[in-house]
Fold these 2 entries.
Entry 1:
Amino acid sequence: VEGTNGTTDDTDVIKSFGGFQVTKVLNEDSQRKSIFLLGRFGDSKKDAVVMLEKTPFSEDVAKDMLTKTSILKNVMHNDIYGTYQLFPKQELNALKTTLIYPATEKHIAKYSCTQAFLITETADDYTDITLPYLESERFSLDWVYNILDKKSEVERIIYEDPDAEQGFMVMPDMKWNEKLTEDLYVMGLVRKRGIRTLRDLTAVHLPMLKNMLVKGKAAIWERYQVPGNKLRIYVHYMPSYYHFHVHFTHINYNAPGSGTERAHMLTDVINNLEIDSSYYRRSTLSFVVRENDKLCARFQEAGQI
Amino acid sequence: VEGTNGTTDDTDVIKSFGGFQVTKVLNEDSQRKSIFLLGRFGDSKKDAVVMLEKTPFSEDVAKDMLTKTSILKNVMHNDIYGTYQLFPKQELNALKTTLIYPATEKHIAKYSCTQAFLITETADDYTDITLPYLESERFSLDWVYNILDKKSEVERIIYEDPDAEQGFMVMPDMKWNEKLTEDLYVMGLVRKRGIRTLRDLTAVHLPMLKNMLVKGKAAIWERYQVPGNKLRIYVHYMPSYYHFHVHFTHINYNAPGSGTERAHMLTDVINNLEIDSSYYRRSTLSFVVRENDKLCARFQEAGQI
């Protein structure tokens, strides 16, 4: 029996959003044109999370929009330049919609906007706040060691330099489906253990860094025919895991995490270590923390946020 | 008299896109959901450039979309997770539309997808290739001097430090409408003339750089109540004009030009000059050139691309 909200059962396919009540905007992204909403169906006591995202244009749909069937309203006009609002007919306006229902507290937290803060970490802040945090948390790197020891993801390796000091492995990042090179995202994973972050690098590591730069570019050219001058090659600070790795992304792709507040060009890292072997020990470095990060709590306790 | 394309004159406001023929897709951005098209109205021999961009969600519009008036099609369903296509009614689907008509060759080139290359510029490359280019092209900075001399955009200034050496002006960037602080984009324009790029900076400029960092953050807090630890503060290399200026953007906003291949955190610039006054004279720096840039041609002639 179909209920008033158009569903027959909690976890069934819904027929419409008739009677849906939005209770909260969890998050939104004005650049990607997406919004995350919390709400309930009619009188239900159960929460639903709805994600709406506008879809990219295809050539065909764009052509069908530039016809008489669209409503056009002028906004501004000056000589040869005009801006308008265009309202295409209903069937051309697909939104990608994801529904999680019933949604748990964890789902709601996951899709909620969390506060972010830019930390300006001096060398002393690193010693007093960040390093004790890294040492107190025992982050498991087993999954990384499994890759390096060829216990997992062996079929994903596209290049390998087995040298114990300078060697590394190259593989496509999980975020990349390898279909188009325009959004190429490849990872380089160093063999050597114990380099947690940029802060641990000195001039001793220059041969390894240069090796990754040169051979990483060559491996990507070999496999995907993308030349080195189309690649943004960088290291994160802070990284998402504490085993040294390098990101290779296509310069036409605005990859997540490629912003200047987090990404450090590998050529800059090499340049800086050549200028001063202790560059990353003595420098002030910036990074963004989110309020649900434990490191954020440490900086808050230290009165730095 | 209204023509067949719905316009009375070439440069008039158009009433509809009836009869418009798309001849080419110039560019598209699947992340921002925008597309740039070349086309003609009916039998016109004149080109038009049309830019379509999907609009961000507002809470009100999203609520109106999650009602019975939208058509809903199920795509995938698994337990509590479901994906759908949602087609809201016509009047909820505003597209931001910009028309340039008649469009010149320059307009078409400007909005076309061009090849981009990452240049790794050594200090010698700068001296041998980039600097001669900067000196041979006489880039007009009159519009900047008009602002600094208060001949234009006076009403847009939100803060001013009049000191001749360390002073600067702060104003919202043209790309920001000042409606939401989530996509805050503010510019700091130094008073002192003659600093073309990062390459011209030495330790002599440290007081000016620190002044812009501290007072720029204070001015933004004062005017927009956005604290300094929510700001990404950076300098472009290469800049789009050769008078020293600083970008202030909200860390939640993935601002165009904030990628690591172009943006240099102001705190890093200060840090580097404190380590070595000649840091920007001797370092290897990366930047992206597009094939229609004259500087790209210079690097190609030098065999660097």
Entry 2:
Amino acid sequence: MIRKSDKPLQITEVSLRDGSHAVAHQFTESQIRSAVRALDEAGVHNIEVSHGDGLGGSTLQYGRSLIDEMKLIEAAVEESKQSRIAVLLLPGIGTVHELKQAHSLGASLVRVATHVTEADVSAQHLHMARELGMEAIGFLMMSHSAPVAKLVEQAKLMESYGAEAVYVTDSAGALLPHQVKERIEALRGSLSIEIGFHAHNNLSLAVANTLVAIEEGATRIDGSVRCLGAGAGNTQTEVLVAVLQKMGINTGIDLYRMMDLAEHIIGPMLHRPQEILTGSLVMGYAGVYSSFLLHAERAGKRFGIDSRDILVELGRRGIIGGQEDMILDVAAELAHKSKSEVL
Amino acid sequence: MIRKSDKPLQITEVSLRDGSHAVAHQFTESQIRSAVRALDEAGVHNIEVSHGDGLGGSTLQYGRSLIDEMKLIEAAVEESKQSRIAVLLLPGIGTVHELKQAHSLGASLVRVATHVTEADVSAQHLHMARELGMEAIGFLMMSHSAPVAKLVEQAKLMESYGAEAVYVTDSAGALLPHQVKERIEALRGSLSIEIGFHAHNNLSLAVANTLVAIEEGATRIDGSVRCLGAGAGNTQTEVLVAVLQKMGINTGIDLYRMMDLAEHIIGPMLHRPQEILTGSLVMGYAGVYSSFLLHAERAGKRFGIDSRDILVELGRRGIIGGQEDMILDVAAELAHKSKSEVL
């Protein structure tokens, strides 16, 4: 593979943050400590530790964490010798207050995440991160759902707020390889900062999409050991490291240590294996939020139609989080349409 | 995606054959019946039913089947209305005797499988298949381990024996996307018959490699629902169907039915989830047979070295099945080398 960037790759392990969803936010302090110690020894560059929905996510709405994330961040910083500890922040859920607290505990990197069309809400937090001396990174979620030009526009906004890298975040695992290529390519032509890629494995394409992103010049790559993450999970870090090594791309990460910690440290944390089941497959196929699944099932039952048709239609219309009231409307419309077709 | 062949895609479901390994050859007749019925209703073109190691594989050496495969083939033929029932035959394990028997029960398609360098042993069986009026297909296993020119030479041999299609079979899940591309491309330039691709998911690249193969002109594609297959399993059929549909490529297969049978029919058959664990990852990374894993572990213990180093060296040397006595030699050599390096 010929990479279109000569910067070294930086891998960010997200199992202790995105994986929080997969364990219903029940990480214990000792789990975080042993995972960080092992990841650090294996040479992983960055380790993200936060509630699954970012700083401040431990609420009734998003799911209460077993252990306060600040305690987990503190523990992670204590255990890490070389790896940097990262945090995630979704403006509106987390605030600059939590950001300052995480920074004071030793987190040195923050990813400020917004919906792909709403980069403007990240300004304050990216500025504050820079002010604090943290590395400030933009994270454009549901990147599949916006046209490429829109994605570029929003990434440039984040750059203007001080972001040192911007991520294409495939939250629904909905991107196809050629769509990753065109997105990273377009950003490389428009930004002067680094480009990142965060994949989900709903369509079993996370590793392959990540390779495409790396080839096109992405240098910040997210992975999760054993795919421990929301939905079908993320790019399986230890597999990615093996594939890159096989391709002659050195990440500086120790493959055998990664295999060992996948088996002995992260494996036992899994509540269930990260297979691709109907729910996550539909999510990737339709390109919708996982939170829509339950709503669509209810609406499907009510109107006597297949919930998957509702999800596909929601994806087609680009309905986003916060617009859940649209689900019933779409279901009613589809039901009406299918009735007309029968008549 | 622009496909380099205008022939329709033919999907062959291998969970009831390759998946036999994953369930220790314990398929029951009623499992086969319900799976075939559902796959047939979903519109899957071909369904392979045999012992994991092909016809005649039910032995002490390869593992005894719970139910005689001829009984399973007969049941599959009975349940299928449109799907063709395929069988696998490895010359040396299966013979023309079993082939005739499978044919008399209604199997209409045989894949004759040899190591990538040993196509010559398939002549008799491919000829016989044609004589019987079955569709005769060549299956070149461990295709990653031979140079492209060798693969082409061997595929041409199979074509000369009457094969109507030849498969690139990535038995160890060791191929990278660019290696799939160069292999399918080379075959397309040299054969006048159809080209097939059979992937394993050891490096989490099965679906992506399959897309590359289809783009380059492969028209015969193997998949297994829920990845039910040896090692990390195969290209997950229902995921592939979703991805192709998303790309605008119609397989004629009903996606929702595939999702439903994945959840309700095949899912309950799984003895364990098809995750990518150390064993299968090392296999894909090193490009070796799964049967080497245990041997390498024993040799590693005996010589005090990491079994993974042995496997990588075996892959580098292209050691194949039947050469297991080399494993101790390689281990001894590596141990000697590492001792010299310390001194």
